[in-house]
Structure formats: C-alpha cells, structure tokens
Input
Amino acid sequence: MKRLRMAIALLLIFALAAMTACGGAGKKEGTKKTGGTVTFGTAMDQFGNMDIHYTTAAAPFQAAMQMTEPLIGKDPDGNLFPLLLDEMPEVSEDGLTYSFKLKSGVKFHDGSLLDSGDVKATFEKMLNPKNLSVHAGSITTLIKGAAEYADGKADSISGIEVKDDQNFTITLVSPNASFLNFLSAWQMSIYPAEAATMDGWGTKVFIGTGPYKLKEFEPNSKIVMERFDDYHGGAKKLDSIVFQNMTQNTALMEFEAGNIDLTEVKDTAIISSYLENEEFKDNIVMIEQLGTIALSFNMKMKPFDNPKVREAISIAIDRETIVNKLLKGLGTPAKSFLPKGVLGYDEDLEEFKYDPERAKQLLKEAGYPDGIDVEAITTDTAATTFILQYLAEAFKEANIRMTIQTYDAAGFTDIRNNGKIPMFILTWVSDVGDPNDFMSLYSTPMSQFISNFYENSEYDAQLQKGLTETDLEKRAELYRQLDYKLTRTDYACAPIYHPNAFMLVSKKIKNLRMENCFRLFDAELSE
Output
C-alpha cells in the first residue's frame, strides 16, 4: 500500500442523453466570473453513503460524479475518450486482452498519484467476497478470473495484470463489444488502493481523481464540495458545490426565492405550470434520457407465470393516454424496451395496440374467465407511483384488479432481494448507452436480482453473441430480435414510456453540461 489518504466527496447523476443548458430565477444575465457556489436542492433523506460501488440509487451517483472518474470518458455525442488514460487501449488480435497506459501525473485528492495498483485494487474491492458490489455480476462475466476471485477461490483477479505504475492489461473471458462502454460507466470509477480498508470510507472519507473534493458530508442531509486545484484536467471555475436535502415543494419555493440554483422537477403538472409561466418558462431545461419505464413481472408468481396474462397486462396499458394526459406530452410512448438512440432500437416497429377487450379474452384463455387480482409494489419516494395509480383504475376495463402496496426504500429492497415482488414499475436509465446495458437486465442472473426471474437459454445465448459481434449492423439486428422476444413474444416486461428529465436552472449558471451525465463541475456563474 503506497499511502494513507484523507477525506473527500461529492455530487450528481440522473443518467441522460445530450444537452447544454441555462435558466434563471428572476435574475438578469451578466458576465461570467470565476468562483462562487452552486446550490442544488434535492432529496437526500435516504443518502447515507457515497460509495457507488454498492448502490444503484441516483443520489450517491449524483454526488460521486463530481469527484470520482472511470478510466474512460464519454463526450456529449456519446463518443468515448481516454479520461484517466494516456490513450485508448490497444486490443489484441483475438479481442481478449486490452493494454492500458495511465495518464501521467493524475492525483487523488490527498495528493498521491494514481497508479496501476489502484486500478486493480478497485476491481478487487468490488469483487471482495465478504463485501460484494451490486455491480459485481457484470465484472465476473467479463474479466478473466473475476468470478473465481469473487467466489473466494483465488487471491487476485488473474485477468488484471499490473506491468508497472502506469501500464496494466485486462484480459476478458471472451471478446466483448461493449467492454469499453462498460469501463466508461461511473460505477467503474477508480478509487485509491486503500479504499477497501479505510475507516469511514463513503461516509467520512471519499477520495477520487475528480475536479471537486469533499469538504463536508452530513449523511441524509447535506454535501459540500470544494474545487480540487490539482485536478489533472485543469482547475474548474466554481469554488464549491452544495447539495442540500429538500422535498420537491421546498426546493421549488427556494428556487423561486433565489436561494438555490437548480433542482429536479418530477411532477409533470408542475413542469407544465412552469412552462406556461412567463417568469420561469426559460428556467425549465429538458434532458432526453436513454431510459425506459416498464412494468416488470415476477414470472415465478401466479398469475404472472402465464405468458397470456403478461400479454394481457401489456395490451391493457394505454400508453398514449399516459404520455399525453398524465405526462402532458413530456415523454414518449414506448414500443420497445430499447429507447431511441440505442443500437438495436427498431424505428419501424409497430406501436403497442391498446386493446382491453383482447386482454379479457387472453385472460379467459389463460384460465381466468373472471379476470385477475394482482398486486404492485412501489416505494414512498418513487416518482412513478402515479402511473400505478392510474393503471389501477384503467386496468378495470380489462378485468384486471390491481392493488398497490407502498414500502420505504429499505423495505422494497428487502422484498426484492427475497424475490417476492409480484409486479413493479422498473425505471432503467443508462449512463452507458450500449444495448447490452438494457437487455442484460433480463439475463438469467440479473433477472433474479430484479425479482423478475425471466430464464431463457436462447435469450442468454443471443445476448452473449451480441457481446462478441463487432459488425454494427449484425449486432443491431441481434438486439432488435432480443427486444422483440422480451416484449412481444415472452412479455417478460411491458414497456410504458421513455422518460425525460426536467430541471429548474438559474440563469446565472452557464456551461451546465447535461448529456448522459449531469456535470455540475463544468458550470460557471454570471453576475
């Protein structure tokens, strides 16, 4: 171990897709200036740890994105570039071994230099069998020796070889067309080698290579970060960024009063009211997300074990009404699980037809002539609960009687981990943009994690083929077929709509980058 590092941390994600923005809370635009503080009002009441290796929740990612970095970055157009690397890695002829060279002089927030040992230690931390990362499944299927290490059968990951401080190689189990995209995901951020053994890591201590570092963290309440002047990409303009815990209603009032600079708006009725308000309409910024909102079924539970029941539920969803009335046009009806802009999306695919009478017939054919009683699970903070509430009423047209049970986040996670969620609304937004990031969610191991239990050997085999196919047209066709099988043949899930994210942004904020990652660290303030 090369050094003991001290505290640090920070802020923001909401996986998205391409945009630069500005807006304002009643303040005149002025000239850009260096320095200042940007304050973001957001729900942090369930945010107690910043270590994104052990969560899929948005808030910790939103924090970590400002201060940690993966090996590979992604520009606003989705193009990959070397972030912590001197150049993009070389790949062996057989497509298995990637040779990396780290960018020289990259410092962690404690002043120590990033080296190859930190990279290997980061992966070993995530695969520690005593504290396995929630993202470990992807790594074990990708990197040679990772599964053995995660199972406690090896002392190190054989597929990661440190050559010297700057050079290392990663050898894969099999060629994988999405591997570099995978390395660009923020959950693959590189930590110092000592992170696994640091006392208070993720709460009192959090160290990265990013442009901002931790100044203060009050779990579930507040994060303050300050500029890291030795950032390898050059010091940023803002002095500090503050994330303050607020309910949406409080955040809106604080924004209108000019006390905070930005906040996310999730309620479509509120978004519409701001868009119609002359004072604030220019403050609303829309971010087109690479994501899908879908009903996901537990295929081990009755009546969801019957494909005709799942099909009936899917065609009993009036997607146009949900988008045009409930969402007030602020979304796109889904006709596939893959969203537009992701390889494999089928532009010519026919829309789902809303047909409650056909749904009734399918239920009869499935052995439910009087309809079905089903239960859906949601959390007390889910932004999609109003969709379930609408469906509970609308499903009656198809003889589907649905009740909704609400739990806190911990309760929901416990039920999911035990495979007991009957049906829920899955929100999946990708920060990678690769079709495998979507379709692998329903692979045999991952479908168990989300309490869906879709198990199809043909699907798994074709998914694996998609990872090794380097011809883009052939790869796109493989994922088109997978999507069709998932949503039109087996009905393992019922896509509802593709979401957009909306932010209220002060006009004094300039250069706020909102592509598939929300980057506060590039912002500047004007007087």
